[in-house]
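Subject: for your reference before the review

Hello V.,

The reviewers asked for a structural picture of the protein, and I figured it would be easier to keep everything in one thread rather than splitting it across files. Below is the amino acid sequence we used in the manuscript, unchanged from the supplementary table.
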Amino acid sequence: MRGGKLIFVGCILISLFAQISAVKKSYIVYLGSHSHGTDATLEDYELVESSHYKLLGSYVGSEEKARDAIIYSYTKNINGFAATMEENEAEEIAKHPDVLSVFENTIHKLQTSRSWSFVDMDNAERDRIGALWTKAKFGRDIIIATLDSGVWPESKSFSDEGMAPVPSKWRGYCENNTKDGVPCNRKLIGARYFNKGIRAFNPDLNITNSARDTDGHGTHTLSTAGGNFVPGASYFGYANGTIKGGAPGARVAAYKTCWAEFCMDADLLAGFEAAIHDKVDVLSLSIGSAPVTRGLDYLDDALAIGSLHAVAKGITVVCAAGNNGPDGTIVNVAPWFLSVGASTIDREYLSSLRLGHVTVIKGATQESETLPQNRLYPLINSSDAAAHGVAQGDAALCDDSSLDPEKVKGKIVVCMGGVVDADTKTSNVREAGGVGVVIVNQTEEADYLTVGPNFLPSTMISYKHGLTLLSYMESTNKPLGNISPPESRIGVIRAPVVADFSSRGPSNSTPEILKPDVIAPGVNILAAFSPDGSSTDIMGDTRSTPYALLSGTSMACPHVSGVAALLKMIHRDWSPAAIKSAIMTTARTRDNKKQTIRDYTHEEATPFLYGNGHIRPNRAADPGLVYDITTDDYLNFLWALGFNATYLSNLTETPYFTCPSEPMRLENLNYPAISVPALDKTFTVTRTLKNVGSPGTYKVHVVAPSGVDVVVTPAELSFSRVGEEKSFRVAMTSKHGTIGKGYTFGRMVWSDGKHYVRSAVAVNVVA
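And here is what came back from the structure prediction:
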């Protein structure tokens, strides 16, 4: 049994879930898979449910008590149940021979930092992408689903105009039996809600019984993955143009498993169960949790369990890598996930700061509120506007209650960046009576302009420009200025850059699997939004918008989900691993300046930041070769982690799994990247490539990690037919003097002159 894993994510969570029972909690009892086959009946499901009551009843006193205690009975694909019980009861049931694991119903969080459109890619990719979309019919008949905070069905992104009838395989539906229900159409073909887990966690929580989105996150992610074409979309005039999802012709479904930004294990498993049964093709999970610290914890986590069942059914599962950067550890690291980090795009949001009547400083903003341009306003340094008894350092950051309204009223306030969120700084200035805000980066090393809507005329300027501003303010007794109206421009800044918030590798639990897998656009992404939600989360901002600019690995994840849907439409017989391999091995590691991708400090990024690189959808459609992985391969991987054969047999529909004579080395999972966390003089990994293109001969090129010799055998592979597989070995030897210097990075590329099958290589020399 896993110990309590309650994640307190700020004061919101504490206030929402203060009423937690000290005696009983809700737990998930996981029993593995079912063996229903394809012809399961309602009677089969009822028999499973009855067996759950019988099992729990033997520990809580009676089947009647078990019926009252069980929240969900997972009867279709995932075998198990969620129930309220005392800790000692959970500990006892965990000892039952049929029980694989028992873990507490804990919290996961949506990964937004608070469309995939042509402006999110470089010019060359814009020119090429149309051919892929035409061939894939924009993903028609592919079904993308999210486990998220629901959907706003009236959004134009979910219009079904011109769409064919719903695919016959679809089993899902929309729950539309209340005034807050969600109607279906030929585009939005499913919408359901699951809230029994969160109600068990806090019965007093005020939530609705509806899949309708009230915060905007679910609508944003679903439309980014599969939203239809919408001309004339913008965020209060910003980023104006036609928006569309990654697979605009795909059908979409929303499983509302998240409430007030938080998602419970029990509800997530119910969502997985429904999505698998309903026959979705791609699952997009913009959800994160606490980093897994041991491989044995994989199957004590609803996201990992549900995703493994989905992948075993041929569903590609794409996950956010987490918003714990720049120092926090990556999440969602199981090898069957396609884990996505976040990058910037090449759209710039400009708002200049005018000083006096002469000097103009370039800044950045997303705020639509503007100042009259026919006058200048007094400027004041926030540290000079400290309220009585407040330290100047707190006032410099424009922290809560730090500013004196008498000093701030009617002025543009200059705040130092960092520590306090930009929207909080702006809100504090607004409450104190200021008319505008200038936020100055504190350090030159991280001179990265992070902009967002602030509900007050505002601009953010660099450290260098901040010195110019402060010099001007010190040169006059009456510093004056104005903030220009905002404008957006495309293709004028370096991109992609790895976002500061994007979580970094290596994985704590299994560093043998290099994570994240790829990065994708996740900063200032324009997509559909719920008019009931707040795009700024600033108190007093009651503005409603049908589209919003949001940032997070939550936004990056559905970009890749859309690409996966396009690939599934073109290559119906590809496995989830093949789709992942195609996306990973065709990714790029150079930006639009033809240089190595940078992080937000302008330093060269590494595979621990960008994985195999930034996605290139058109290249992924024709990768040439793929690294394929079967369900048995994943089970072998779990066996090598320490799970026993009986346990693993229960994870499959039929108890056929047999452990090999020797456990595999974790590094030898047929992953599209290579990670060796402890190179002790020499080490050899093996990989197998499958041909998915025309016949040809591929030669390998290796850029070895610093301090490591790398030899690939054979160095040439010839393929004569589609589906043919060839294996090779990668031998690594440490050089003298490289011990203890940490990870170094390289790459391996197989090419026939047309295709380039790229793999990142990470090695840590220990001897």
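For the response letter, the relevant points are probably these. The chain has 19 helices and 39 strands. Confidence is low (pLDDT under 50) at residues 1-22, 114-129.

Happy to draft the paragraph if you're swamped.

O.
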